[in-house]
């Protein structure tokens, strides 16, 4: 496996498209329920937790792109290979792939639950899984450009949903945001951690970076994208905080859908049915992106066909999903992945950037001692 | 490869169609529009539903009401299905009528449980039926073809801008805990012969009806709750009042006026609550109203700015008195439906909140009302 | 009848397998003029060919004869065999005894009609002239719009049994036109038995042969063709066809009418908005009706649900079947209308639909509401300026209806997503099909889609500029980008 991998020119895309890709990897079915878990953790100052988590995410994203910039055109697979060597690198890569498989299962399962609760109580899980799988396979087999195209479509969908969420402000009780006081740091940290789970997804930049044509602009657009996600999450958090009472937020499983329940036109009511249905596109784009990453990892490491990998992954997800049917199990799955995601998205990049820094400075010193005046890679 | 792929997709699609879901074809369901809850003497529910149903005979009424006796609100659904032609569909419920006895029997949280079902909308309107819900829903009206939709329209236009407070499912299921939330105000409705009338509103304290407010009082409560409210107002000024405010000098055609009645419409109102002293629990409730004068029993000199100032001064004192009466009433029945508690909570630290028992605190508070008047216009004449 | 002319006749008989249909006229002892009866202009033949050949003495070579004839297109062929093709396309063949060389003279007169008012793409403003079946006339029409030396004409004879002549037109700009190589090679390589209409050629030139969505459009208007040329597109003329092929197009190009540019820009935007609304109405209106009435009764407002129940009370079919019956009726009427001899058929079919619809309501087959919705949806498809795209939209509605009736709103979302992904995967000569939307492009969006006033003067869209070479391969890569990542 090569450390640096330069995709063909017609597969590369403008850094501008990172804006759509990152936010679409972050926003998925989780957006319907994230307020609740944060609120359970830290109460009415949940919005502070959202802001803090967002800022931390910006910091992590910065460090990820800094690491990537040390290489010419490498992704996480290549960096692992470079830093940890052939065997340890592969093991780490497999861990990452495993995490993405789990994420795919969780995304599917959560979406199925929403469909089953809100629209069709009697729809069999496998129907939804097959629908999602067809879409996901069709998208991911089209390659990165088609996936990015779906991300652009998804962006418009998210934007419209956010605009729809303005209507509950009519019934807002703004006092519920007050008082602004942090009396329990531990609760706040807990809230930030839970928000971190919702924000995860921006780490796809690990894998998309080699495909960016103008890499010097990647940083800018990635941060814009993360900023957009943060604003969406902050807005939805504030709307939920002012619209719901504490009890309702504690109990309601999907506050974002409840928000949409009151949107009403003279020709159409209960917009949440439409939004949940359209969310299939949003769910599918995240799935396709993750499947593409898995396929790419397998291709980089073992030169396997991505389409085969995609089919195998989807089958695995199918089997896993068929066996999870109780709500409690879904909760356990989410909690399990939550911990994983926090570790891999927020803690690991910091760790890795230290390791990369040490390894590179060590190599440079060695090179200098050896009298070889190689081009320095350490210009951060 | 391509043909194979297309074929497999088509195959899966066809196989999927065999997994048909339960349909809700519109003419094969009975769509419940209004649901009424009464409490029997033995503490069981009597649930009445008014629904729309497709009837092949055009002569028959498209609307029916059925009532059943049950222990829980959920149990009613099963009993209903045994008694109607089609399956009952709850996704279109617009109005919930509640018996006042429901609150006495501590059964209000049964209603809150309904919001667990995703079928129920959040904007279901809740209203108290003074003589029981079944009384309104089961009566055969001559002039009202469909009581469910009629009630919905009636509540719609009465709560939209008018004085009647809005009570929706969302609002109703808000406050279960001891946390500090404003209490509920629910419009009261009663049937008088063939007519249905919204008479006032009920003030609650912890799911107990503790008092009633008239239309005028409801208006103040509604605007203090931050909702848009209009109200057609009529006030009488005694001679004494006219002299005090100086209005007496501005009746050019009648030097010797006695009582004057003034009709005006509040076209816009906005209420605020200020905390004047947090420790002593002193609140000030301000209502800014914009009024449109519609009639005055004596000719009044509106051209004179001093006359208008005098009128405004008099109106302000009268309206402030009315507001103060409302606030006193709220305090007396101990139903903080305006939201002083929320204002209070937003000012105190979280730790102090735990020890707060608002039901005990509220009667000790000082509430002061104030009305600011903007005279927008005097109709088409000065 | 001279001996020489008799020998020519026999030779031709041998070549053409039949002695009928052509005329051989001997002049003197050494000349023979032959032509296919009915394909030549008799007046020209008499005046300029037969006249100058009579009373001439012995001639040494065919070249001399050529100088006598006062007709522009006049060519010497090495043998009679090679001249037959010309003979069959309407040339007069002059042969001289004692030489194998043959002179072919263009006195062709193919029956054609004069250019008339465009009937398929009629507009209110703009030139009221349309292409005819004669390629020469069509080229003349096009040249009258663009008389620039940058307008390049390339003639390609398709490798078919019909020997169909085609001409490719494109504008030579500062950069080389990126599509021309692909189109040229595709036209040369595609082998098929016969090609009669330009729509057949159009299908062979597509990137995505399996797709329902068209990539190239047909037009009968010379101004549309000229506009397309200025936008950097390519126009293909096919002999004997009044419709020229214009391509490559993006998805949105099919929803633009030339009239958008003729109207005030505000009106143009309004019309485009109206049309895009019609697009959504035609695809989604009836499926939403089916989905709402079959599964999601909660979505219908109370004021609407009462009349809906009333209108559906007596109908024995579920909403899906009811809608399908009516949709198929409309399609039948449309098809019947198209088969009717006159253009009245089109109007008649719509009127007929309403009449049939009324009867269906009276018979209790369908509801009034649905008739209204179906009529609206049908109108929506007919507002699409491009008939080919309109036909595609009509077809899409049927699977959409079926998923709506079986899976409700999630089904509609699923199929829409599938179509969107399909459109995203499609390419038009290597360029993304959904161009100004994806890849998102500000200029393309503002100048091309929204059609601002200044955009009248900007003709090149980004779809057709800055293309890299080898589009066929680019298209292939696009499909299997994952497999060939390295």
Note down, in words, how this protein is organized.
The complex is a heterotrimer of chains A (380), B (382) and C (486). In chain A, 72% of the residues lie in helices and 0% in strands. With 380 residues, chain A is mainly alpha-helical. Chain A has one domain: Up-down Bundle (Amino acid/polyamine transporter I), CATH 1.20.1740. In chain A, helix 1 (18-26) packs parallel to helix 9 (218-243) and helix 5 (125-140) packs across helix 12 (272-302). The two termini of chain A are 26 Å apart. With 382 residues, chain B is α/β, with parallel strands linked by helices. Chain B folds into 2 domains: 25-213; 231-377, GMP Synthetase, Chain A, domain 3 (2-Layer Sandwich), CATH 3.30.300. In chain B, strands 1, 2, 3, 4, 5, 6, 7, 8 and 9 form a 9-stranded mixed β-sheet that branches. A 4-stranded mixed β-sheet of chain B has the order 10-11-12-13. In chain B, a hairpin with a 5-residue loop joins strand 1 (29-39) and strand 2. The longest helix of chain B has 29 residues, at 305-333. The mean pLDDT of chain B is 80. In chain C, the strands form 3 sheets. Chain C has a 5-stranded antiparallel β-sheet with strand order 1-2-4-5-3, sandwiched between helices. Chain C has a 5-stranded antiparallel β-sheet with strand order 6-7-9-10-8, sandwiched between helices. In chain C, helix 12 (319-339) packs antiparallel against helix 13 (344-362), helix 12 (319-339) packs across helix 14 (368-383) and helix 12 crosses helix 15 (387-425). Chain A: It is a multi-pass membrane protein. Chain A: Keywords: Germination, Membrane, Transmembrane, Transmembrane helix, Transport. Chain A: It is found in: Membrane.
The tally of structural domains of chain C comes to: 3
Number of strands of chain C: 12
Secondary structure category of chain C: alpha+beta
Question: Could you estimate the helical fraction of the residues of chain A in percent?
Answer: over 70%
Which CATH first-tier class of chain A would you pick? Mainly Alpha
By helix and strand content of chain A, what is the structural category? Answer: mainly alpha
**Oligomer class:** heterotrimer
The CATH topology annotation of chain A reads as Amino acid/polyamine transporter I
Determine the most extensive contact between two protein chains.
A-C, 55 and 41 residues
Number of domains of chain A: 1
Main sheet attributes: strand count, strand direction, barrel closure of chain C: 5 strands, antiparallel
pLDDT < 50 stretches of chain A: 372-380
Rg of chain C from C-alpha positions? 29 Å
Please mark out the parts of chain C with pLDDT under 50 across 5 or more consecutive residues, or reply none.
465-479, 481-486
């Amino acid at each position: 496996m090569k450390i640096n991998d330069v995709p063909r020119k017609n597969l590369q895309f403008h850094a501008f498209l990172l804006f759509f890709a990152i936010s679409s990897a972050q926003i998925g079915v989780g957006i319907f329920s994230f307020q609740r878990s944060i609120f359970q953790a830290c109460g009415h100052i949940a919005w502070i937790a959202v802001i803090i988590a967002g800022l931390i995410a910006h910091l992590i994203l910065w460090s990820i792109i800094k690491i990537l910039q040390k290489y010419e055109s490498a992704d996480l697979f290549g960096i692992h290979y470079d830093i940890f060597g052939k065997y340890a690198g592969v093991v780490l890569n497999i861990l990452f792939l495993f995490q993405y498989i789990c994420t795919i299962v969780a995304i599917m399962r959560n979406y199925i639950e929403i469909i089953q609760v809100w629209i069709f109580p009697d729809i069999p899980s496998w129907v939804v899984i097959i629908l999602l799988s067809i879409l996901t396979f069709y998208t991911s087999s089209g390659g990165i450009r088609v996936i990015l195209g779906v991300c652009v479509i998804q962006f418009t969908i998210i934007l419209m949903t956010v605009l729809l969420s303005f209507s509950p402000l009519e019934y807002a009780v703004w006092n519920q945001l007050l008082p602004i006081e942090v009396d329990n740091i531990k609760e706040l940290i807990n809230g930030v951690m839970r928000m971190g789970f919702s924000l995860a997804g921006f780490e796809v930049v690990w894998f998309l970076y080699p495909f960016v044509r103008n890499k010097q602009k990647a940083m800018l657009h990635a941060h814009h994208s993360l900023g957009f996600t943060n604003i969406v999450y902050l807005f939805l958090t504030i709307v939920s905080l002012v619209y719901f009472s504490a009890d309702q937020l504690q109990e309601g499983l999907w506050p974002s859908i409840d928000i949409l329940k009151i949107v009403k036109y003279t020709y159409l009511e209960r917009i949440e049915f439409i939004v949940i249905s359209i969310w299939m596109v949003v769910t599918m784009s995240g799935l396709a992106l993750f499947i593409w990453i898995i396929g790419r990892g397998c291709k980089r490491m073992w030169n396997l066909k991505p389409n085969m990998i995609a089919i195998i992954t989807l089958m695995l997800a199918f089997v896993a999903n068929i066996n999870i049917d109780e709500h409690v199990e879904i909760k356990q799955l989410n909690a399990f992945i939550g911990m994983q995601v926090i570790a891999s998205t927020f803690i690991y990049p910091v760790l890795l950037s230290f390791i990369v820094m040490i390894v590179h400075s060590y190599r440079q010193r060695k090179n200098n001692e050896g009298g070889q005046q190689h081009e320095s890679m350490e210009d951060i | 490869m391509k043909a194979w792929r297309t074929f497999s997709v088509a195959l899966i699609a066809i196989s999927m169609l065999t997994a048909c879901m339960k349909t809700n074809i519109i003419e094969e369901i009975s769509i419940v529009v209004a649901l009424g809850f009464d409490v029997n003497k033995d503490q069981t529910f009597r649930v009445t539903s008014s629904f729309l149903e497709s009837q092949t005979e055009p002569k028959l009424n498209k609307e029916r009401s059925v009532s059943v006796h049950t222990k829980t609100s959920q149990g009613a659904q099963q009993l209903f299905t045994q008694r109607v032609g089609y399956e009952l569909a709850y996704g279109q419920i617009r109005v919930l009528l509640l018996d006042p006895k429901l609150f006495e029997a501590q059964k209000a949280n049964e209603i809150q449980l309904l919001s667990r079902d995703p079928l129920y909308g959040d904007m279901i309107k809740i209203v108290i039926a003074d003589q029981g819900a079944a009384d309104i829903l089961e009566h055969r009206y001559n002039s009202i073809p469909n009581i469910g939709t009629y009630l919905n329209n009636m509540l719609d236009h009465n709560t939209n801008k008018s004085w009647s407070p809005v009570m929706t499912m969302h609002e109703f299921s808000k406050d279960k805990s001891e946390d500090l939330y404003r209490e509920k105000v629910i419009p009261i409705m009663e049937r008088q012969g063939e007519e249905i009338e919204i008479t006032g509103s009920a003030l609650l304290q912890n799911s107990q009806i503790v008092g009633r407010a008239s239309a005028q009082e409801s208006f103040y409560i509604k605007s203090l709750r931050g909702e848009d409210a209009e109200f057609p107002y009529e006030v009488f000024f005694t001679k004494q009042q006219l002299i005090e405010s100086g209005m007496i000098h501005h009746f050019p055609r009648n030097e010797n006026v006695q009582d004057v009645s003034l009709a005006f419409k509040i076209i816009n109102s906005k209420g605020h609550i200020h905390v004047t002293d947090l420790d002593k629990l002193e609140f000030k409730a301000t209502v800014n109203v914009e009024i449109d004068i519609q009639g005055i029993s004596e000719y009044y000199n509106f051209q004179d700015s001093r006359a208008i100032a005098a009128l405004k001064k008099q109106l302000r004192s009268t309206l402030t008195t009315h507001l103060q009466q409302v606030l006193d009433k709220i305090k007396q029945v101990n139903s903080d439906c305006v939201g002083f508690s929320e204002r209070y909570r937003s000012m105190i630290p979280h730790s102090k909140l735990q020890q707060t028992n608002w039901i005990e605190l509220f009667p000790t508070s000082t509430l002061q009302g104030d009305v600011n008047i903007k005279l927008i216009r005097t109709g088409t004449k000065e | 009848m001279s001996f020489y002319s008799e020998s020519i006749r026999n030779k031709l008989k041998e070549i053409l397998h039949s002695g009928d249909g052509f005329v051989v006229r001997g002049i003197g002892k050494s000349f023979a003029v032959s032509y296919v009866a009915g394909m030549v202009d008799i007046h020209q033949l008499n005046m300029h060919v037969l006249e100058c050949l009579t009373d001439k003495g012995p001639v040494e070579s065919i070249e001399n004869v050529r100088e006598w004839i006062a007709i522009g297109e006049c060519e010497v062929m090495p043998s009679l065999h090679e001249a037959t093709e010309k003979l069959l396309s309407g040339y007069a063949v002059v042969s001289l005894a004692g030489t194998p060389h043959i002179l072919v003279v263009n006195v062709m007169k193919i029956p054609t009609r004069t250019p008339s008012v465009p009937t398929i793409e009629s507009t209110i403003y703009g030139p009221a002239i349309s292409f005819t079946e004669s390629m020469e006339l069509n080229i003349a029409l096009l040249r009258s719009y663009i008389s620039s030396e940058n307008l390049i004409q390339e003639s390609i004879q398709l490798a078919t049994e019909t020997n169909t002549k085609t001409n490719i037109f494109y504008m030579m700009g500062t950069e080389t036109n990126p599509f021309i190589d692909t189109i040229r090679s595709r036209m040369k390589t595609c082998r098929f038995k016969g090609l009669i209409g330009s729509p057949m050629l159009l299908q062979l030139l597509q990137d995505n042969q399996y797709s329902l969505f068209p990539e190239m459009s047909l037009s009968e208007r010379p101004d549309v063709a000229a506009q397309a040329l200025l936008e950097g597109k390519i126009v293909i003329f096919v002999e004997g066809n009044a419709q020229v092929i214009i391509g490559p197009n993006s998805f949105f190009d099919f929803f633009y009418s030339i009239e958008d540019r003729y109207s005030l820009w505000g009106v143009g935007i309004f019309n485009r908005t109206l049309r895009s609304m019609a697009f959504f109405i035609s695809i989604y209106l009836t499926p939403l009706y089916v989905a709402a009435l079959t599964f999601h009764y909660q979505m219908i407002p109370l004021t609407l649900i009462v009349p809906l129940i009333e209108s559906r009370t007596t109908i024995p079919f579920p909403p899906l079947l009811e809608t399908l019956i009516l949709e198929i009726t409309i399609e039948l009427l449309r098809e019947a209308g198209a088969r009717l001899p006159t253009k009245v058929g089109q109007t008649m079919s719509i009127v007929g639909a309403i009449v049939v619809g009324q009867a269906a309501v009276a018979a209790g087959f369908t509801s009034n509401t649905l008739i209204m919705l179906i009529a609206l949806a049908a109108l929506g498809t007919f507002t699409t300026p491009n008939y080919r795209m309109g036909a595609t939209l009509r077809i899409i509605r049927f699977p959409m209806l079926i998923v709506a009736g079986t899976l409700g709103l999630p089904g509609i979302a699923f199929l829409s997503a599938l179509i969107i992904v399909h459109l995203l995967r499609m390419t038009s000569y290597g360029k993304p099909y959904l161009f100004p939307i994806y890849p998102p492009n500000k200029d393309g969006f503002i100048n091309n889609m929204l059609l601002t006033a200044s955009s009248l003067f900007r003709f090149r869209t980004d779809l057709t500029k800055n293309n890299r070479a080898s589009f066929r391969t680019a298209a292939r890569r696009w499909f299997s980008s994952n497999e060939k990542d390295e």
